[in-house]
């Protein structure tokens, strides 16, 4: 169901993101990359996987931020939607893009120094299994950065939720012609565990939480984790 949904909106996904979030989604990805790179042990070259990479925005941001730090990288993207990957192919030709599911990641144990998942975890059909897989393919001591949406009880968070619930399905529907996809987005945020609860899910799989940070206007958050205690 999720794969069909993203296949149907792939060609207009980026435009919808930019307009709906007023470009804030780029800012959240940028900050996520910066925090993730700060948490990594010093290295000249690293291997990076972006799970649920979609149209490749996170990979593009990762390459830019690594370049600024003089670190070279091998970049991999995994996604279950072939249409999202088609768009990504043009935007991130430097990355190796692989079709597949987070619940069965097609890489060996301990392959990556850094894994990112932006707005993907909420969509996984079997989150527990996907978390185990993320743990498996990360190197011991490696960093996992999860960027997601959630509801925040602050006044700003409530305003942002009001906008998300009322405006996003209308604007998203107009841009992509698929209002259902954006109604699903709102519903999935409503059902998703709060960040502290999500952190506990990762911790029970063996991760330790390095940081939990809300981004303006308190509708998106970063959960930064390390493999191991
Ligand atoms: C909201 S988009 C996020 C895309 C991208 N990470 C970004 O920041 O724009 C969610 C993506 O997750 C992918 N996805 C959903 N469930 C998945 C799963 N179980 N395994 C792999 N990819 C999945 C979808 O195909 C879609 O491209």
UniProtKB/TrEMBL annotation:
Pathway: Quinol/quinone metabolism; menaquinone biosynthesis; menaquinol from 1,4-dihydroxy-2-naphthoate: step 2/2. Belongs to the class I-like SAM-binding methyltransferase superfamily. MenG/UbiE family. InterPro entries: SAM-dependent_MTases_sf (IPR029063), UbiE/COQ5_MeTrFase (IPR004033), UbiE/COQ5_MeTrFase_CS (IPR023576). Methyltransferase required for the conversion of demethylmenaquinol (DMKH2) to menaquinol (MKH2). It comes from Thermococcus profundus. GO terms for biological process: menaquinone biosynthetic process; methylation. The keyword Lipid metabolism does not apply. PANTHER family: 2-METHOXY-6-POLYPRENYL-1,4-BENZOQUINOL METHYLASE, MITOCHONDRIAL, METHYLTRANSFERASE. Keywords: Menaquinone biosynthesis, Methyltransferase, S-adenosyl-L-methionine, Transferase, Ubiquinone. S-adenosyl-L-methionine binds at residues 55, 79. The keyword S-adenosyl-L-methionine applies. One of its GO terms (molecular function) is 2-methoxy-6-polyprenyl-1,4-benzoquinol methyltransferase activity. This is Demethylmenaquinone methyltransferase. It catalyses: a 2-demethylmenaquinol + S-adenosyl-L-methionine = a menaquinol + S-adenosyl-L-homocysteine + H(+).
